[in-house]
Amino acid sequence: MTAPVLSRRPAPAASATAPRRSLKDRGTRLLAALFLAPTLVGVLVFTVVPIVGSVVLSFFHWDVIGTPRFAGTDNYTQVFTDDTVLVSFTNTLIFMVFAVALQLLLALALALTLTNRMPSWLRSTFRSAFFFPLILSAASISVVMKYLFNQDFGVVNWLLGHVGIAPVPWLTSEHSAMAAVILVYVWQQFGFSFLLFVGGLNTIPKEIHEASSLDGASGLRKHLSITLPLLSPTLLVASVVGIINALQVFEQPYVLTDGGPGDATRTVVMVIYQSAFEQLRFGEASAIGVLLFVLIMAVTALQFRLSRRFVHYQ
Amino acid sequence: MNRMKYVLVSWTRVAGLTAVALLTLGPVIWTVSTSFRAPAESFDLPPRIIPGHATTEAYHQVFAQIDVWLLALNSTLVTALIAVGQMITAGLAGYSFARLEFRFKKPLFGLVLATMMVPVQVTIVPVFLLLKPMGLTDTLLGLIVPAWPTAFGTFLMRQYFLGMPKDLGEAALIDGAGPWRIFRSVYAPLATPGLAIIGVLAFNYHWNEFFRPLILETSPQNFTLPLGLVSLQGNLGTGSISVVLAGVVLSMIPAMAVFVIGQRPLREGITSAGVNR
């Protein structure tokens, strides 16, 4: 390890430029240290230390006011026997599967429909419309949606009434509350994946499609054997980001249903919030946080493993 | 025949896209139009797009019930200071990782990237406990400072600086410029569009942020707009959703302004996340 470092150092007075060079190197290192300090200190203080803190705290009982008591694995056994917590993990996973699948399918279908042959003003109008909900706050849009999904005077049921569907108790029935939360979430989020796909499609060279048309490939065939494989890196990013975001869902169920009815829409992050800041059980909240983190890492790692077989780079 | 099929397919495409666009914008249009209805008429069905008797009564009530100006000032301060802070930290760190040579560059960059995976919910309890003895809970500063380091922003700016020609810096070096001069006079001015992306993304995200303010801010005078809005919901009991919706519209205005001005940087920020590899 020491040898290469020594050899890299310029021999003293080896050439006329040697002193200036070393000055430049020292200057560069100093500048790098100064430039990196805010980010590195911030990352250390506000992310790395808190993660370690979460893990440590998850082995203690603590209500902030008293002194922390060592709890061993109590918090974890508590988590694994608490029905609410277990249900929240199930809910979050169900939410993730449906929200991500819907979001990706819708976004992909729209991105493929929006072809280059359309006039550009029309393209940009559609693009802006799909992208618009992303700029709104999830909390305030959920407030709006709470009224639209109201069983008695909501616009959604009023519209469904026109096609002969009886009023659905969207937010008040255990069977449909999660569906409403998923719909609201997908409504706001699909524009993100849509933009990723439009960007990805633009990087696919036109010649490839033209060549396959000459060979007589049909539209569907072209999408399946050319577009999708070439788009697979973007699909990977969209699904990784989609899954990480979906596992952290909070605003929509918090505002729309407050986790109810019963525990039907209670998600992991809602339980973290409630056990820490409503019940002051910081140790247990940390344990749930650590488990959520492990879940996110595991799902992401699994995806990257699977992707090795399906993702093609040009 | 083929020509007719082509026209038919194009029209089906446009019709499908229009339907989805209407579904996407519908709730927003409904929100704006209902906010201009008299509170007593706010539940009327069918929902008329143009209210029969347009009135700004609901808006007057919002201003009477919550201190909109204070909430807007809080939101503006928090969002603007986070956006500027992120542009500075991400610009500096991104440049270092892209163009400067120093020891442990790769592991340090790896560390920063890895924190992108850590959800704010997992670290919020320790961050809260860290801010508490510093007296920063229930202050705006407690919201601002922890949001300054940005892993995504650092990654984006690194990509941005990597995309600039190396020759520029080398030419300046030959002319006798030091590392600071090269950054300040050559590369930093070229980075403006990249920094705009960071700024717009930060503005959009933090203007709408709900989770951290919900936990950190307990006094109503420290609330940001999303928090204040959710508290307006008590109005449902009195039967006037138009008041709640007027509040929602008020909070959307700056977001819409950024959408109009910053649409391109926003889009580029999102798109580049999926295309850069």
Distance between the termini of chain A: 37 Å
Strand content of chain B: under 5%
- What's the oligomerization state? heterodimer
Number of helices of chain B: 13
What string gives the helices and strands of chain B in order? HHHHHHHHHHHHH
Q: What is the succession of H and E elements of chain A?
A: HHEEHHHHHHHHHHH
Q: Using only CA atoms, what is the Rg of chain A?
A: 26 Å
Q: Report Rg of chain B.
A: 24 Å
Number of helices of chain A: 13
The structure class of chain B reads mainly alpha
The first-to-last residue Cα distance of chain B is 44 Å
List descriptors.
heterodimer; A: 314 residues; mainly alpha; two-stranded antiparallel sheet; 13 helices; globular; disordered N terminus; B: 277 residues; 0% strand
Structure description:
The complex is a heterodimer of chains A (314) and B (277). With 314 residues, chain A is mainly alpha-helical. Chain A has 13 helices and two strands; from the N terminus they run H-H-E-E-H-H-H-H-H-H-H-H-H-H-H. In chain A, a hairpin with a 7-residue loop joins strand 1 and strand 2. The longest helix of chain A has 40 residues, at 18-57. Chain B is an all-alpha fold and 277 residues long. Chain B has 13 helices and no strands. Chain B has helices at 2-35, 57-65, 68-99, 105-114, 120-131, 140-144, 151-162, 166-174, 179-190, 192-207, 211-216, 225-231, 241-275. At the A-B interface, helix 2, helix 4, helix 5, helix 6 and helix 8 of A face helix 1, helix 3, helix 4, helix 5 and helix 9 of B.
